[in-house]
Amino acid sequence: MEYISTRGSAQLPVNGPLDFEGATLAGLASDGGLYVPREWPRFSLDEIAAMRGLPYAELAARVMKPFVGDSLAPERLRELCEQAYGRFAHAAVTPLAQLDERNWLLELFHGPTLAFKDVALQLLGLLFEEFLSRRDERLTIVGATSGDTGSAAIDAVAGRERIDIFMLHPNGRVSDVQRRQMTTVKAPNVHNIAIEGSFDDAQAMVKRVFGDTELTGRFRISAVNSINWARLMAQVVYYFAAALQLGGPARKVAFSVPTGNFGDVFAGHVAARMGLPIERLIVATNVNDILHRALSAGDYSTGTVTPTAAPSMDIQVSSNFERLLFDVGGRDGLALAEQMRGFEASKAMRLTNAQREGAATLFSSTSADADQMSQAMRWAYESCGEVIDPHTAIGLHAAREADLPGDVPVVTLATAHPAKFRDAVERATGLRPPLPARMGDLFERDESYVELPGEYEAVTAYVAEHATPSR
Ligand SMILES: *Cc1c(COP(=O)(O)O)cnc(C)c1O
Predict the structure, then answer these.
(1) Domain extents for the chain?
(2) According to the UniProt entry, which residues carry N6-(pyridoxal phosphate)lysine (predicted)?
(3) Ligand 1 atom 2: the closest Cα is on which residue?
(4) 415 contact partners, CB below 8 Å, separation of at least 6
(5) Is the overall model pTM greater than 0.90, yes or no?
(6) 347 tagged catalytic
(7) Is the pLDDT of residue 12 over 60?
(8) What value does the mean pLDDT take over residues 67-95?
(9) DSSP of 17-78
(10) Does the beta carbon of 390 sit less than 6 angstroms from any atom of ligand 1?
(11) Which among 52, 209, 282, 403 is placed 20 to 30 Å from 159, CA to CA?
């Protein structure tokens, strides 16, 4: 499989077009675009039906094989999937729970850090290690986190020989559970940095690192945010898993997805492109509703971020939305590059008619405020006995509002374990969800992190001193 940039002009490396290995290690394309496969592989309905009943790791290897192409032997891909998903606390990896005659929850939080990001990052850590050892290279991951991504990324690469990870979090501004999930990981390649300032300050420093030729000349610096194609690819699998459980491919299924950076729901679009019958993808947002405005009115313009009880959805710009605009808008990279330049200059753009109509064939959207979120949490608890987190609640609200044929099951993606956001859950339901047994001693473990002032030079000096050069 070959990968191309959404901005159409990424220079092909001298040794030929970019394959899966190249796209995985590169992350962002050099023209600022995002990598997508040159064409979508397609399964027939018979091929999809034949996947029913497979163990998750085997299903994952089957669904991902066309994207991985020659970059990994099929047996090796399957071994890596078994290793990644063997770390989940549930044998089904992403089990379904029934709420009522039509609504289901797809529990994506049984990984090591209790958020759905583990599904993709556990595999990505293994893919990085595999490709780096093949090339005898090293990688330095630099990231900023307001919570979930940092812990999932650290867990995924802790102890890996060829990777150093530096994770910046705003000092005093992440929850105790989130901080401890990062700072209690004991591995020589894990470097937690508590930085004075806000998440945006930390994020701005990370962006500067990527343009810093002094650092990028010595280290192969990489990001782990959801722009990495391999992360999206790993998320396609659970759409297949859920649909097969609920009667697919003979029966269409709808999905409601708590959305921030548009990575998770874009994976649903990919599943549909691959031939999985999907009735609808519902993009669920909180009051930070740029995606709802874009999909319902064609208006993609940033505002200021309002902090909510679902912080992983508090976004201004949704990076992976570019992939959808590319795919439904005629796959014209140069035109999209122009459109994105306009957006970057004015922080606003209109979707083209082709983009709007293309998106409307599969997507709809809903935005939920704080009351609607709390009501959804209460309904799930009081009527169905299920405790859900604030992100999942926004998805469930959208699922219950959706106007769909009566025989279509609606699967809400449960993106975080309720214990991760127990204050908000307690406010809505009166119940304080306990941490799962495997995390029970989180508050007894020793923490390790450095505190640095909010100065760029302090951060780069720390990275340069503790990272290992790329070769
Ligand atoms: C990251 C995250 C989201 C948003 O997912 P995207 O792929 O960025 O749309 C939703 N819920 C939780 C709990 C998350 O951690």
Answers:
(1) 91-114+229-429
(2) 117
(3) 312
(4) 108, 109, 115, 116, 258, 264, 312, 389, 391, 392, 395
(5) yes
(6) no
(7) no
(8) 98
(9) SB-HHHHHHH-B-TTS-BEEESS-----HHHHHTTTT--HHHHHHHHHHHHHGGGS-HHHHH
(10) no
(11) 209
